[in-house]
Design brief:
The complex is a heterodimer. Chain A has 5 helices and 2 strands; from the N terminus they run ααααββα. By secondary structure, chain A is mainly alpha-helical. Chain A has one domain. In chain A, a hairpin with an 8-residue loop joins strand 1 and strand 2. In chain A, helix 2 packs across helix 3. The two termini of chain A are 15 Å apart. By secondary structure, chain B is mostly helical. Among the domains of chain B are: 220 residues, no CATH class; 74 residues, no CATH class; 61 residues, no CATH class. Chain B has a two-stranded antiparallel sheet with strand order 1-2. In chain B, helix 1 packs parallel to helix 4 and helix 18 crosses helix 19. Chain B is elongated and about 105 Å long. Chains A and B meet through helix 2, helix 4 and helix 5 of A and helix 26, helix 29 and helix 30 of B. Chain A: Belongs to the CPA3 antiporters (TC 2.A.63) subunit B family.
Chain lengths: 139, 752
């Protein structure tokens, strides 16, 4: 599709979507969002980019092959699940660390659950882009 | 065929040495348990495995399992030592050693397991590893075929075996084998006794190659000779015998047990000995004598008397020792001369003296001459046969005939090639290196030592094994070389006479048998036809179900959905449906109308882009329903997926020609109405019945305190049900990669 308006708009939209997708993922534990939704949003940004500027540009912008991203995501999710074994818990038990926690404030919570969600994000993101890029290129 | 032993007898370096040391260590460990077991105690070891199902990693060492363990690890050590030279410098020796060691460990697990499920796991592991071993020379078509045949026959039996084990566990309420045996005769009176017995025996008879399932075993000779030695002496085929022996206390004593085992055993023993005499290939002849041994062991397990059990335990050991030894000798002959055909062998005794001694010792034990253990085994066989209350003549007759034939075969295999005729000029045989004669000599000498000092064996192994078999102490009979003038002795003498006559006339007999057996249908010949038929059926069936037309797949899928739901609703009784429309608001109605309009447009349009857009409308309508009923996460996901699907479909669709004019298809219309109606009905039924809110409440209460999250949907996804999510994302990755691979291959295919 060769539209200047779309191309210029995409420059900003794709970036915004990517930032927004991280936001969606991070807020997911307490508000609507999460790794699945975040991954879908991020993928939408790149799909838009691919439609406007072609898959070659989109691949170049992504730098890494989308399949690689998906597989890394799966590995990260698995690692987050196995992490519980270090503390003698069952597989995929969430491990939490509250930085700077006080009596009534939980501080900054860090958890293996978040790592797992990042894995989910990468899997969804990478898988969808694998499919879309391949379809755009092959058909 | 190139003869000769490997010139480099150092073997295969560390890869060859480690398995030998490993199995030797196992043997030493099991040997150290002998004093405990000789005192008729048992050793148990239990680890929790699947506690929720009551399944444990339970191991039991008693007389029976220790006897088997010693045979497996001992013969395993010698076979591995032998293989290291036999296959010296083989490029895939590491693989071979791995398979053989894995096979040995599976077999040990099988005989030590005290839990039905554990037993089955090891049972199947022996099937798989033996498949690898039989098909080790995978370049040969015949090798692959025979390996597959062994896998299929024993695998099919394994399925029946599994069914039998499950029934057994259900009938007795435990998967513990000692637990089942402790229940005494309760199982024999159980209503499921007969089905359990038939299924278990289907498994053990195929594994232990009883007629008519015997055909895979001689074919398994495609394996390298050390594998055959191991498979035939202590492992694989003995697995079936082991299971029958293990189940003996709990299941024997009924008429069905007695007659099934007696008849199958007797037929196999006689039939196999006749077949053995017919062979001209040394290895094939030995293979059939294994069948004979298996038949005899099964025959004894059919009985209950102390004589029969003692005979079983003794013959089990006798057979393992001489059979492993003879197979290894045949391997030496094969390498030395380049052939295994009896007609082309002779005069090897002077050139290969050590091998010849090993062969002679083993063969004398096999033929049952005094003072070898084989003699005691044979005497016990006759004593056991006479002790059979019901049919002593049948059992003793079968034993006599098969023993006489055994003697003749022993002569053909181990006497004739060494001490008759001369070496053909085309061969230049030499003595085997020590690694290859050590095994045969040790095993064959044990047969002689135990024959002269039967008490060694009696106390250490036979007595505890008989205790395992009968469940009672004191049933075991004395092992004696000289038991006085009695019927067994007379039968022994008759065996020698008959056997020597058969040996003297074996060439003429062979021709006679050749003619006779041609008349008998052979399952092996039908095997390939059966397999071809199966393949043709699979092809026909695949073409029927997967015809490549997307519309017919969809038709089948939706038909199944509609039929499944409607039939369920009809059979469970249609619930009372009271549709209450009073709280429907205008926004609900308008969303519904929008969705319906989208669906209708998709149905009638013949523009692809309009169709895609119309489907997008339907999807967004559904997302709006989620928003209205406060499921924002689901709504967001639905919206995003809908967007991406429209893009994806558009990418494909816009390249296609415009839709043909929509035509009306009655069956499609009826199906879509049926699917819509059935799904609506079931949804209404679900909504009108009271919702079980326990899970919802549980997550509402625990989400924050336990998982520190307020968004329940996400907390469930990443914490409570993280394993499910992991499975799902794994599926996503696999689907994406498969689709990617498919798209790529298509393009390459086009370029050709």
């Amino acid at each position: 599709m060769n539209s200047v308006i779309l191309r210029v708009g995409t420059r900003y939209l794709a970036g915004l979507l990517l930032v927004f997708s991280f936001y969606m993922m991070l807020r997911g534990h307490n508000e609507p969002g999460g790794g699945f939704i975040g991954g879908l949003t991020g993928a939408t940004g790149f799909v838009l980019y691919a439609i406007a500027c072609g898959t070659q540009d989109a691949r170049a912008a992504l730098r890494v092959m989308p399949q690689t991203i998906a597989i890394w995501g799966l590995g990260i999710a698995l690692a987050a699940g196995l992490f519980a074994a270090l503390f003698g818990d069952a597989l995929f038990t969430g491990q939490w660390l509250f930085i700077g926690a006080t009596e009534d404030d939980k501080g900054l919570p860090l958890s293996s659950v978040l790592v797992f969600d990042i894995g989910v994000y990468l899997v969804v993101f990478g898988s969808i882009l694998t499919l879309v890029f391949a379809m755009e290129e092959e058909i | 065929m190139a003869g000769g032993f490997p010139t480099d007898t150092r073997g295969n370096g560390i890869v060859g040495v480690i398995p030998v040391l490993f199995s030797a260590a196992l043997f030493v460990y099991f040997a150290s348990l002998m004093p405990t077991i000789a005192a008729t105690e048992v050793i148990r070891m239990t680890l929790p495995w699947i506690p929720s199902l009551g399944i444990e990693l339970a191991f039991l060492v008693d007389g029976l399992s220790l006897t088997f363990s010693l045979l497996i690890s001992g013969i395993g050590t010698l076979v591995l030592l032998y293989s290291n030279t036999y296959l010296a410098g083989h490029p895939q020796y590491a693989r071979f050693a791995l398979f053989l060691t894995a096979f040995m460990v599976s077999m040990l697990g099988l005989v030590l397991a005290d839990d039905l499920i554990l037993l089955f796991v090891f049972w199947e592991l022996t099937t798989l590893t033996s498949y690898m071993l039989i098909g080790f020379s995978h370049e040969a078509e015949k090798s692959r075929r025979n390996a597959l045949q062994a896998l299929f026959v024993t695998g099919a039996g394994g399925l029946a075996f599994l069914a039998g084990l499950i029934l057994l566990a259900a009938a007795t309420g435990t998967t513990s084998i000692s637990g089942i045996i402790a229940q005494g005769s309760a199982l024999k009176e159980h209503a499921m006794y007969l089905p359990i017995l038939i299924l278990l025996l289907a498994g053990t008879f195929t594994k232990s190659a009883q007629v008519p399932f015997h055909f895979w075993l001689p074919n398994a000779m495609a394996a390298p000779t050390p594998v055959s030695a191991f498979l035939h002496s202590a492992t694989m085929v003995k697995a079936g015998v082991y299971v029958m022996a293990r189940m003996h206390p709990a299941m024997s004593g009924t008429d069905v047990w007695l007659w099934t085992l007696t008849i199958f055993g007797a037929v196999t023993a006689v039939f196999a000995s006749l077949l053995a005499l017919r062979q001209t290939d040394l290895k094939q002849a030995l293979a059939y004598t294994t069948l004979m041994a298996l038949g005899t062991l099964t025959l004894f397990l059919g009985q209950e008397s102390g004589y029969a059990m003692t005979a079983f335990a003794t013959f089990l050991i006798v057979h393992s020792l001489y059979k492993a030894s003879l197979f290894l000798v045949v391997g030496c002959i094969d390498l030395s001369t380049g052939t295994r055909e009896t007609d082309q062998l002779g005069g090897l005794g002077r050139i290969m003296p050590i091998t010849a001694v090993a062969a002679a010792l083993a063969a004398l034990s096999m033929a049952g001459f005094p003072p070898f253990l084989g003699f005691i085994g044979k005497e016990l066989k006759y004593a056991g046969a006479i002790a059979v209350a019901s049919e002593p003549v049948l059992v003793a007759g079968a034993a006599l005939l098969s023993n006489a034939l055994m003697l003749a075969v022993a002569g053909v295999v181990a006497f004739r090639p060494f001490w008759r005729g001369t070496v053909p000029s085309s061969q230049s045989p030499q003595e085997a290196p020590w690694q290859m004669w050590a095994g045969p000599i040790i095993l064959a000498s044990l047969g002689a030592i135990f024959g002269i000092y039967p008490d060694l064996l009696q106390v250490a192994l036979v007595a505890p094994t008989v205790v395992s078999l009968t469940g009672e102490v004191g049933e075991v009979k004395e092992l004696q070389l000289w038991a006085g003038f009695n019927i067994p002795l007379i039968l022994s003498v008759a065996t020698f006479v008959l056997g020597l006559v058969l040996y003297a006339r074996h060439v003429q007999l062979r021709a006679l048998l050749e003619r006779g057996f041609r008349a008998i249908p052979n399952l092996d010949k039908g095997w390939d036809k059966f397999l071809d038929g199966l393949k043709a059926f699979a092809k026909w069936q695949t073409q029927l179900v997967q015809n490549g037309k997307l519309s017919s797949y969809l038709f089948g899928t939706f038909l199944t959905i509609a039929a499944g739901i409607l039939l369920t609703l009809i059979y469970t009784g249609m619930p009372m449906i009271a549709v209450d429309l009073s709280d429907v608001e205008w926004k609900h109605t308008s969303i519904a109308l929008l969705t319906i309009a989208g669906a209708l447009l998709a149905l009638v349009t013949n523009s692809r882009i309009a169709g895609i857009a119309a489907l997008g409308v339907v999807g967004i309508g559904i997302a709006m329903i989620f928003i209205v009923f406060s499921a924002p996460d689901v709504a967001i996901t639905q919206l995003l997926v809908e967007t991406l699907v429209v893009v994806l479909v558009a990418v494909v669709m816009l390249r296609l020609p415009s839709l043909p004019k929509a035509e009306f298809r009655l069956n499609h219309a009826l199906l879509s109405v049926a699917v819509g109606a059935s799904v609506s009905l079931i949804l209404i039924a679900v909504v009108s019945s009271p919702l079980d809110l326990r899970l919802t409440e549980y997550f509402e209460v625990t989400s924050w305190p336990e998982a520190y999250g307020r968004n329940i949907v996400n907390v469930i996804l990443v914490d409570f049900r993280a394993l499910d999510t992991f499975g799902e994302i794994a599926v996503v990755v696999i689907a994406a990669l498969s689709a990617y691979a498919l798209l790529r291959t298509t393009r390459k295919g086009d370029q050709k």
